[in-house]
Amino acid sequence: MNKAKKPGSWNFRYNYREIEADAVLGTFSDSDFIGGGTDGKGHELNFGYQIGKGSKLAASYFYK
Description:
Elements: E1 10-19, E2 40-52, E3 55-63
Antiparallel strand pairs: 1-2, 2-3
């Protein structure tokens, strides 16, 4: 995986998840993915750009 560290560098991540009903305790589920519950599947796209030393701009997109 590419990690943005130097100013002007970037990184991209793709993740597909399929979480079955009651597969994970609600406390440990990802609150951004399918509303924080279980019994769902979808895609996550993430893009990050290192603006300067100590500053990064990043965005995530979730699609069911």
